[in-house]
Amino acid sequence: MPARLKFIVAYDGGPFAGWQSQARGDTIQDRLERAFREVGGQRVRVHGAGRTDAGVHALAQCAHVDLADRNFPKEKWTAALNAFLPPTIRVLRCNYVDPKFHARFSAKGKVYRYRISNAPILSPFEKGRAWHVIRPLDFDTMAEAAAHFIGKHDFARFTANRGTPAQDTVRTIHDARARRAGSLITIEFDGDGFLYKMARLMSGALVQCGLGKIRARQIVDLLRLQNAKQRVVAPAEGLFLVRVRY
Amino acid sequence: MPARLKFIVAYDGGPFAGWQSQARGDTIQDRLERAFREVGGQRVRVHGAGRTDAGVHALAQCAHVDLADRNFPKEKWTAALNAFLPPTIRVLRCNYVDPKFHARFSAKGKVYRYRISNAPILSPFEKGRAWHVIRPLDFDTMAEAAAHFIGKHDFARFTANRGTPAQDTVRTIHDARARRAGSLITIEFDGDGFLYKMARLMSGALVQCGLGKIRARQIVDLLRLQNAKQRVVAPAEGLFLVRVRY
Given this model, what pLDDT does residue B40 score? Predict the structure, then answer.
């Protein structure tokens, strides 16, 4: 009897050309599909909750595959897949689920984290895992500005064109908050959905606030105005998909 | 007038064959000496506070070099050296110091940190930066055992032979403590000096305690007994030189 397997996967996006399979480049989806083929001899299509760009990391991305049967226990899938995956991609757990569950369409929301190192010199241990902003950032302004993202807004100004037709660009941000630990600033966004490059554009806007280039309450104007000249896309390496809510 | 430059350097030990120059292998010392040559055109000898093994990391190793003059300001040294170093090695700051200062002989003590991931599956972000111990560790026993290292002891049983002649093996550990954050266990040792592989042998003993193979108070016996069969050297990748005290 066919079976749907849901799994949680963490990855360091650094070495990969993003999540989604593409003609050129080594992607997370490719690696996962290859591991399923090597373990079970089955060609499967991996459906992720969302596509992360090249360099973007995940602490707990969620995905599913359809298998021919349930003969292989879920714990064995975890160990077997990891045996065929590089240490930069780790399947954390697997579960057989109802076939009505869909990693992408059943998702109720996502949490993204953006990490910024504001140290004068980037630690070797933050390389590839944070945006290194050398000029001093005003943390309080960033924290105040982050709160302005909370609520239901049209984020049309906070997405990049991916060549797809016009879509509904209204999203609800349940929480947006900045934290500081030493020279590390972390921004966390919890929302019902994120448009293409939305988390990175929001993070870029908050850094602009921290540098004094735009004021905290101007975030609201940025959401409305057609003026895109102040748009800054924060680099991929600082972004982490923290979890998918269902 | 000749000048002595002291500097603090952080490095990810993963890609290197340790600190000290050697006939074969790419070492941190080699990279630093090459950077000094490329920046100042001077062949210098880098003297570190201590040699870290292949794979061991440093958050703030200390070293010094002797230069022909003080013509190049200290801030410029930092930026110039980093321009010639890989991102896995970062000079954090430089200072001209009295020629009586010696990175190794003036050191009053060091702080080492050992990181252990006790998660069932090693996060891609801990790969190369923690010892992955899969079997569950009893944290309380480890914390209790760590305290037994505090004080002045003969650490002859907690060092590996490096082919050097017999030496004084008495060292004072000012503090040794274990911390836990989720599945990550961190042990920190603050001592007046550390013998070859001492921090890794101490960490290995604490993991043996956490696995129930030796009891917490047996640490004291291990310090005295000639029985070396329970010795476990914790892997290099979990060890961080945190700072050098002067």
Answer: 83
For B147-195, write each residue's pLDDT tens digit: 999 999 999 889 887 666 567 899 999 999 999 999 999 999 999 999 9
Query: Which among B57, B90, B129 is the nearest to A122, CB-wise?
Result: B90
Contact B52/A at CB under 8 A: no
- B57 touching A (Cβ < 8 Å): yes
Which of B30, B53, B138, B192 is labelled catalytic? B53
pLDDT greater than 70 at residue B105: yes
Chain B residues inside the 8 Å CB shell of A12: 124-125, 127
Confidence of residue B13 (pLDDT cuts 50, 70, 90): very high
The SS3 call for residue A72 is coil
Across A176-199, average pLDDT: 97
Say if residue B229's pLDDT is above 90: no
- Collapsing DSSP to helix, strand or coil, A78 comes out as helix
Measure the CA–CA gap between B195 and A14, rounded to whole angstroms: 37
pLDDT for position A36:
96
B78 touches chain A (CB under 8 A): yes
Q: Are strands A170-181 and B109-117 parallel, antiparallel or unpaired?
A: unpaired
Mean pLDDT along residues B193-216: 95
Least confident of A6-10, A222-226, B170-174: A222-226
Active site annotation includes A154: no
- Verify whether the Cβ–Cβ distance B87 to A12 is below 8 Å: no
A interface mutation test: which of B90, B122, B127, B184 has the most A CBs within 10 A? B90
Find the DSSP H helices in chain A.
28-40, 74-84, 139-147, 198-210, 218-224
> By the CB < 8 Å criterion, does B82 face chain A?
yes
- Quick check: A124 and B12 CB within 8 A? yes
Which residue does chain B place closest to A11, by CA atoms?
B124
Residue B42 has pLDDT above 90, yes or no: no
